C-alpha cells in the first residue's frame, strides 16, 4: 500500500470521529438557533416598533459587515477581558448562531415580503389573528421559497465550521492539524479533510434537491386547490 494511502486510512477514523462529535453537532445547533434568531430578527424588522426594527437592522449590519473569524476571536479571546469566560465550543456556537441569524434574517425577511398582501387579507377575512395568519398562511408559503437559499446557507455553514479550529474547537479540521503536527504530511491530511467536507456538502446538496422537489409539489397542490 502506498504511504499516502496508508496515512489517509490510518487518520480517517480520527477525522470522522471529530466530525461526528464536534463538526456535525456544531453545524446543526448553530443552524437551528440561528434560524430561530433570524426569524425573530426578520419579524422585528418587518412588524416591530421602530426601536426594535432599528436594533435588528444594527445587528444585521454589524454581523454582515465583519468577518466571521473576527467575530469568533472577539467572543473567545476578547470577552475574557470583560470577565466573560467561555469554553471553545459554546463560544463557537454563539458566534455561528449570531452569524447565521443575521444572514438568514435577510432571507426570511425577503420571502415574507414576497407573499402577496392578498394572503393577509384572506386570512383576516376568515377571522384569523395576526399570529394565526403568520403561522398558518404566510410562513408556510414563505418556507417554500426560502428552502433553496437557506439550504445553501446550511451547506456553507458545514464548511465554515472549520474556522472553529482557530479558537481550539477540536473539530474535523483541527483534528487534521493535530495529525499534521505529528506526521509532517500537510498535503495528504488537508486533502483528506477537504474530501470529507466535499462528501458532506455533496450529500447535503442532494438532500436539498429532494427537499426542493417536495416543496415544489406541495406548492403545486396548493395552487391547484386555490
UniProtKB/TrEMBL annotation:
It holds the Pfam family BPD_transp_1. It is found in: Cell inner membrane; Cell membrane. The chain crosses the membrane at residues 20-46, 58-79, 187-207. It comes from the Bacteria. InterPro entries: AA_ABC_transptr_permease_3TM, ArtM/GltK/GlnP/TcyL/YhdX-like, MetI-like, MetI-like_sf. Keywords: Amino-acid transport, Cell membrane, Membrane, Transmembrane, Transmembrane helix, Transport. GO terms for cellular component: ATP-binding cassette (ABC) transporter complex. One of its GO terms (molecular function) is L-cystine transmembrane transporter activity. It is a multi-pass membrane protein. CDD domains: TM_PBP2. Residues 16-208 form the ABC transmembrane type-1 domain. Gene3D superfamilies: MetI-like. Belongs to the binding-protein-dependent transport system permease family. HisMQ subfamily. This is Cysteine ABC transporter permease. It comes from Rhizobium leguminosarum.
Amino acid at each position: 500500500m502506498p504511504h499516502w494511502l496508508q496515512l489517509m486510512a490510518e487518520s480517517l477514523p480520527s477525522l470522522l470521529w471529530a466530525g461526528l462529535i464536534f463538526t456535525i453537532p456544531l453545524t446543526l445547533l448553530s443552524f437551528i438557533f440561528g434560524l430561530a434568531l433570524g426569524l425573530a430578527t426578520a419579524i422585528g424588522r418587518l412588524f416591530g416598533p421602530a426601536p426594535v426594527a432599528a436594533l435588528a437592522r444594527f445587528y444585521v449590519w454589524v454581523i454582515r459587515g465583519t468577518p466571521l473569524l473576527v467575530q469568533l476571536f472577539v467572543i473567545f479571546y476578547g470577552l475574557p477581558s470583560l470577565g466573560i469566560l467561555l469554553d471553545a465550543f459554546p463560544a463557537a456556537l454563539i458566534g455561528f448562531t449570531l452569524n447565521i441569524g443575521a444572514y438568514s434574517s435577510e432571507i426570511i425577511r425577503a420571502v415574507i415580503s414576497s407573499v402577496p398582501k392578498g394572503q393577509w387579507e384572506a386570512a383576516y377575512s376568515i377571522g384569523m389573528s395576526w399570529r394565526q395568519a403568520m403561522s398558518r398562511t404566510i410562513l408556510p408559503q414563505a418556507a417554500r421559497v426560502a428552502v433553496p437559499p437557506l439550504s445553501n446557507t446550511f451547506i456553507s455553514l458545514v464548511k465554515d465550521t472549520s474556522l472553529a479550529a482557530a479558537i481550539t474547537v477540536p473539530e474535523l479540521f483541527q483534528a487534521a492539524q493535530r495529525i499534521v503536527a505529528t506526521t509532517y504530511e500537510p498535503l495528504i491530511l488537508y486533502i483528506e479533510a477537504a474530501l470529507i467536507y466535499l462528501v458532506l456538502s455533496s450529500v447535503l446538496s442532494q438532500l436539498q434537491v429532494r427537499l426542493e422537489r417536495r416543496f415544489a409539489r406541495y406548492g403545486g397542490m396548493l395552487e391547484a386547490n386555490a
